[in-house]
Amino acid sequence: MVNTGRFVVLVLAYRLLVPLLSGSAEPDHTTKESYVVYMGSPSGGGDPEAVQAAHLQMLSSIVPSDEQGRVALTHSYHHAFEGFAAALTDKEAAALSGHERVVSVFKDRALQLHTTRSWDFLEVQSGLQSGRLGRRASGDVIMGIVDTGVWPESPSFNDAGMRDVPARWRGVCMEGPDFKKSNCNKKLIGARFYGVQPESSASNASSSAVATPAATGSPRDTVGHGTHTASTAAGAVVSDADYYGLARGAAKGGAPSSRVAVYRACSLGGCSASAVLKAIDDAVGDGVDVISISIGMSSVFQSDFLTDPIALGALHAHQRGVLVVCSGGNDGPNPYTVVNSAPWILTVAASSIDRSFQSTIALGNGDVVKGVAINFSNHSLSGEQYPLVFGAQVAAHYAPVAEASNCYPGSLDAQKVAGKIVVCVSTDPMVSRRVKKLVAEGSGARGLVLIDDAEKDVPFVTGGFALSQVGTDAGAQILEYINSTKNPTAVILQTEDVGDFKPAPVVASFSARGPGLTESILKPDLMAPGVSILAATIPSTDSEDVPPGKKQSAYAIKSGTSMACPHVAGAAAFVKSAHPGWTPSMIRSALMTTATTTNNLGKPLASSTGAAATGHDMGAGEMSPLRALSPGLVFDTSTQDYLDLLCYYGYKEQQVRKISGAARFSCPAGAPSPDLIASAVNYPSISVPRLKRGRPATVARTAMNVGPSNATYAATVDAPPGLAVRVSPDRLVFSRRWTTARYEVSFDVAAAAAVSKGYVHGAVTWSDGAHSVRTPFAVNVL
After folding, report:
1. Is 562 marked active-site?
2. Quick check: is 130 catalytic?
3. Is 327 a known active-site residue?
4. According to CATH, where is 2.60.40.2310 located in the chain?
5. Record: fold of 31-108
6. Closest CA to 417 of 451, 374, 446
7. Core-most of 91, 150, 358, 699, by most CB within 10 Å?
8. Which of 562, 577, 624, 679 is catalytic?
């Protein structure tokens, strides 16, 4: 976990250092790097070969005549939007950026992977029964998973009992040395792969100079991440799934009747931006309904909308009726770390479920300490007790005590450690749990007790090595025992899963927090299970992951917003199957306004620190898919809203026209102002980035009735002390279904009231007695 102060210092140091470094030498204009050339909405025609030929001609026009042999495209985009990726020098990239048809040019950067019981837990939390609802789900919804590929042999992709593939499907099942067309079926209906750099030996500028996949490529997952996310979103029901005996139960996706199409744009090292953009383009062209992307940029170096490949692809997907769901990132709990925060993306935070993996430490004095980890050690209460030592007591020669206490690499004396259980602390955030485990294990330790409050909510998987993590209070008890006796001993027992754990859900410590890049939009949007999620995986090639005497598990337990994202994508597909005519923003709205804000103790949701969770932690709250089927009211956000947002954000009218493909588009009258975004976008939450006493802020929203006719909704406000919130009108009357009503919410600092500076949170809730439509708000009081 990153210390906030240290984090800020590192960021400032980097920003100061980069200009100094960049000015220390002349730029090299001959070095070629991969760039993405984005050209906005398709210009027409639709013939892929003609589009590629036009892209090659444009590329050829800026490459020197004596280097025409290297004119080639890595990718050509022509379904949802237009553009291409190619190897360019800085000078060539600058020349293309000035072309009349080009909107933006940016480097093809690397994106990061955001690395059972969860669906049952969500159903219990909703308080509803799903029997009748399950019959409403159809098998016609198609989910696109942009990730590391798929392991098609997993039983999670069994198509038993499924109907024929929908006739509207236009995708393919790409073959490779280890992947055949027969690997696709009625469940896994499509598979593509990307990520190949252009060949420098291309001989001419014809359309044949598009780089083709290498012979070694295929859609097969070699990482496990993509298989895990795909099965979480839409895996078939598999009885008696488990991870070496833990978390046993039925593994299933959120939309088990939906179809899956995978787009392998990533590997273990990350994802190419140009490949991710191509995957989104192909997924829209293939005919998917929902796209799940558990990938993102660094929260430290976020880009504007026109150089963020996921934001660009998602905007055009929305234009064509495809909902894009993305993970919010794992850089929490620091604020301003959420990524994938464009308003047209459904951004997901991660939470825990009501299951804990307990690793018990039995001390030699009879005391028992409950820790957390996933280990399959051979320690036993009836067997041998092991000497227990603090890291500082077994420090290597000349090693600082502080380093040995933290299990720093090279800090432990192997002769003193061998055969013992070592206790280490985590006062140095630069040494991860995995490193400490490797240091202790490499020094011959029989186990490791880690004292660390950070990430204690996320069990660390350690295979056959005995490890347990405890908080500082329990750690103090263990250290006190070590100091109280001459020969302290202990054993670390195998992990047991504990059900009906309380409180749950809790916002995961790693889950990225808002505000987002655009503070006028509240991000993240929604929270879903992302801690210790059991789902399908690939056969492990790492012997460390397989306990002694066990066969490889077909399922794995993983944590991250990567795991939360496909939960929401699966829920979105579930809602789409019941309401095929709903737009992406209607589905998002239904999921957000019906989210729950209480845990299984009936108390307000909390962060991992125990503090009350805010909208910047959890968005609208923990999703409740069953409730989302009948939201009562929805907030339908149009493409026009998003284009107006780009104007308010400062983009020129001509740029927005190219992006939208609407030649007659005009920006709203008046000067651009980010403060106007809160009203410009009909969003199911509200964020006011600046509020001063005596200068009220007013935000407008339009609600659509998707429930019964002749409905009347009354507003209630939950506001923090000192913040005056008024809703006008405070009653909305709908004579028919599909009719709309507009209202305004005004915010001001109450006269002579003491109100906290910074962001404060609350909600406006509309109710007709049967439906509860909650829209959270965040207001930054200056």
Report:
1. yes
2. no
3. no
4. 633-781
5. Alpha-Beta Plaits (3.30.70)
6. 446
7. 150
8. 562
